[in-house]
Structures are given as structure tokens and as C-alpha cells.
TrEMBL record, chain A:
Binds specifically to the 3'-terminal U-tract of U6 snRNA. Belongs to the snRNP Sm proteins family. The gene is LSM3. This is LSM complex subunit LSM3. It comes from Serpula lacrymans var. lacrymans (strain S7.3). The keyword RNA-binding applies. GO terms for biological process: mRNA splicing, via spliceosome. InterPro entries: Lsm3, LSM_dom_sf, Sm, Sm-like_LSM3, Sm_dom_euk/arc. The keyword Repeat does not apply. SUPFAM superfamilies: Sm-like ribonucleoproteins (SSF50182). Keywords: mRNA processing, mRNA splicing, Nucleus, Ribonucleoprotein, RNA-binding, Spliceosome.
Automatic annotation (TrEMBL), chain B:
Component of LSm protein complexes, which are involved in RNA processing and may function in a chaperone-like manner, facilitating the efficient association of RNA processing factors with their substrates. Component of the cytoplasmic LSM1-LSM7 complex, which is thought to be involved in mRNA degradation by activating the decapping step in the 5'-to-3' mRNA decay pathway. Component of the nuclear LSM2-LSM8 complex, which is involved in splicing of nuclear mRNAs. Residues 1-21 have a biased composition (Pro residues). Its main location: cytoplasm. Transmembrane segments: none annotated. This is U6 snRNA-associated Sm-like protein LSm6. Residues 26-98 form the Sm domain. Component of the heptameric LSM1-LSM7 complex, which consists of LSM1, LSM2, LSM3, LSM4, LSM5, LSM6 and LSM7. Component of the heptameric LSM2-LSM8 complex, which consists of LSM2, LSM3, LSM4, LSM5, LSM6, LSM7 and LSM8. The LSm subunits form a seven-membered ring structure with a doughnut shape. The keyword RNA-binding applies. It comes from Serpula lacrymans var. lacrymans (strain S7.3).
């Protein structure tokens, strides 16, 4: 398809190349997690370890344009299963 | 003085020329054409991702390079590579000539 330098033929290749690496995952509900990627499947269900979750708490009374995170809550988890339908974006560590 | 030449008639019959079409074909042809090009991917949440489209699949899962995340037009994040899960995609817009 794209004979570019990266050698990625389908989007899941990006995830496959990130196994055992720390990834950033943006989730629905203003949540993010970072963790070591152990496994994934076609639904983008993920198994992560050494996880830190960041929850953005937004002021729902503010007008839509001014709505931003007023508070960030963080928590750590040793092992986490992420259900695929909550995933918006996965970013692997920068490959150089 | 020359009243034999009438003014040119208003040519209301001819429609305005169609807008220039940069590409034609099916949606699949469009998507094949934008691989490797700069695109703007908008998600249903309204967030935009601008970057180079590495590839995409039948679910419209997308791999982007040199990705910038824009919320309300302001840059909020940068990712070297990004995988976007297809169900979140609203549209893919070509950001450079095909």
C-alpha cells in the first residue's frame, strides 16, 4: 500500500510493534491510561500492566467552549483489562 | 452610431461551470488516494487529528504519523504515531492536493 519508511501495512501493525512497550491510551469519558502493553485483539481490548490512569474532571456547568479539565485524578493499577469499545486512540512510544 | 450590432444576448441557458473536481471515483478510491498524504481526521467528539495517513482498514481504524491533536482549533497534543479506533471517526479530510 504505502511504501513509506515505516513498513506499516495496516493500523494494527502500529499496535503489534508496541507490544511490551509503554503506550498512551485515550479513552472515552475524559480518561487516559499509560501502561506496558501485554496483549490486544481485534476489538482493541487491551491488557496493560504498571498502569497509571488520569481522569479529567470537567465542569459540566461551564459553556461548551470553555469546558476544560478543572481537576485531574490519578490512580495506579498493577494490571488492567481495557474493553476495546472505550478506546479512542493509542499512541506507541516514538520509534526512532 | 453603429446600431446594427446588437448587444450580446444574456446567455441564461448555459449553467455555471461545475467546480473543478480534483479526484473522482468511489470512497474507496479517495481513501486509497490519501494514504501517505496529510489529512485531518475528525472524531464524533469534535476532536481533530492532523497528520500523515499511514494506513487504514475496513473498520476505518487509522494509523497516523506526525499527529497533532486539535480541540476547538487549538493544539492540545502531539503524537509521533497514533492509532485511532475506527468507530470514533466522523470524517477524513485531505489536507493537501491529491
Amino acid at each position: 500500500m504505502d511504501p513509506s519508511s515505516t513498513g506499516i501495512q495496516e493500523p494494527f501493525d502500529l499496535i503489534r510493534l508496541s507490544l511490551s512497550e509503554r503506550v498512551y491510551v485515550k479513552l472515552r469519558g475524559d480518561r487516559e491510561v499509560t501502561g506496558i502493553l501485554h496483549a490486544y485483539d481485534g476489538h482493541m481490548n487491551l491488557i496493560l500492566s504498571d498502569v497509571e490512569e488520569t481522569i479529567m474532571i470537567v465542569d459540566v456547568d461551564a459553556p461548551l467552549e470553555e469546558r476544560r479539565a478543572v481537576k485531574m485524578a490519578k490512580r495506579k493499577m498493577e494490571m488492567l483489562f481495557v474493553r476495546g469499545d472505550g478506546v479512542i486512540l493509542v499512541s506507541p512510544p516514538s520509534r526512532t | 452610431m453603429d446600431e446594427t450590432t446588437p448587444p450580446p444576448p444574456p446567455n441564461e441557458a448555459s449553467p455555471p461551470p461545475p467546480p473543478p473536481i480534483t479526484t473522482s471515483g468511489s470512497p474507496t478510491d479517495f481513501l486509497k488516494g490519501v494514504v501517505g498524504k496529510r489529512v485531518i481526521v475528525r472524531l464524533t467528539s469534535g476532536v481533530d487529528y492532523r497528520g500523515v495517513l499511514s494506513c487504514l482498514d475496513g473498520y476505518m481504524n487509522i494509523a497516523l504519523e506526525q499527529t497533532e491533536e486539535h480541540v476547538n482549533g487549538t493544539l492540545t497534543n502531539r503524537y509521533g504515531d497514533a492509532f485511532v479506533r475506527g468507530n470514533n471517526v466522523l470524517y477524513i479530510s485531505a489536507a493537501e492536493a491529491l
